[in-house]
């Protein structure tokens, strides 16, 4: 099962953030197997079907989980004796992932009842951190996609990109997108 598909399945668990953490722990301990193609950046040597277990702690140390869950790849900088590598085509054992998720009983909201929105906390914290740091502006995020991707990474990929896109679009349109007056001023300054 490709990493983004595993991520989507893990997000159906009762406590998705806890499930992602426990899943990473299970991978690091070898209870859930996975493979990846490895490119050693310094030598150009390529290896296929490398066990992901040996790289998982480096993925967590270098905060690359969002890249793994979103794109099924990660780029790890050299650290000590560990060379710089690029992991791609990350996949996990489908049966093990399904079993892991089944143990955590995926949540199914009752008809007509809204889900508790605790899953949104990391999203709002990421948006607030950007605003507090003075980076929630068009200079740092020239496009909506740039804002979506940055928020997704800052959240640790605890929700899928499809879920956060509508709200981050609203933030972009209300806070970052230049008004007609600002555009006219910018044009007047260049004339």
- Poorly predicted sequence stretches spanning 5 or more consecutive residues: none
Cα-to-Cα separation, first versus last residue: 55 Å
Major sheet: 4 strands, antiparallel
The percent range for helix content is: 40-55%
Please work out how many helical segments DSSP would assign: 9
* Mean pLDDT figure: 84
Strand order of the largest sheet: 2-1-4-3
Tell how many strands the DSSP assignment holds.
Answer: 4
Please tell me how large the radius of gyration is: 20 Å
The share of residues in extended strands comes to 5-15%
| Protein structure class | alpha+beta
Shape call: globular
Order of helices and strands: HHEEHHEEHHHHH
Word description of this protein:
- The protein is of the alpha+beta class and 191 residues long.
- It is built from 9 helices and 4 strands, in the order H-H-E-E-H-H-E-E-H-H-H-H-H.
- The protein has helices spanning 3-10, 16-28, 53-61, 65-71, 94-103, 121-132, 144-154, 161-176, 180-190; strands spanning 34-40, 46-51, 74-76, 85-92.
- The longest helix is centred in the last third of the chain and has 16 residues, at 161-176.
Question: Brief overview, please?
Answer:
By secondary structure, the protein is of the alpha+beta class.
Topology record:
Layout: H1 3-10, H2 16-28, E1 34-40, E2 46-51, H3 53-61, H4 65-71, E3 74-76, E4 85-92, H5 94-103, H6 121-132, H7 144-154, H8 161-176, H9 180-190
Antiparallel strand pairs: 1-2, 1-4, 3-4
Helix pairs in contact: 1-4, 7-8
């Amino acid at each position: 099962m490709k990493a983004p598909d595993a991520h989507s399945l893990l997000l159906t668990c009762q406590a998705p953030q806890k499930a992602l953490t426990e899943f990473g722990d299970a991978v690091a301990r070898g209870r859930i197997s996975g493979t990846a193609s490895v490119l050693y950046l310094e030598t150009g040597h390529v290896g296929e079907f490398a066990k992901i277990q040996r790289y998982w702690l480096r993925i967590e140390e270098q905060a690359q989980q969002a890249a793994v869950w979103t794109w099924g790849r990660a780029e790890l900088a050299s650290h000590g004796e560990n060379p710089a590598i690029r992991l791609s085509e990350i996949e996990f054992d489908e049966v093990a992932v399904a079993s892991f998720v089944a143990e955590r009983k995926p949540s199914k909201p009752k008809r007509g009842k809204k889900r508790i929105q605790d899953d949104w906390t990391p999203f709002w914290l990421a948006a607030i951190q950007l605003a507090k740091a003075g980076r929630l502006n068009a200079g740092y995020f020239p496009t909506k996609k740039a804002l979506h991707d940055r928020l997704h990474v800052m959240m640790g990929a605890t929700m899928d990109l499809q879920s956060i896109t509508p709200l981050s679009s609203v933030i972009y349109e209300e806070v970052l997108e230049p008004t007609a007056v600002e555009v006219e001023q910018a044009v007047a300054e260049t004339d």
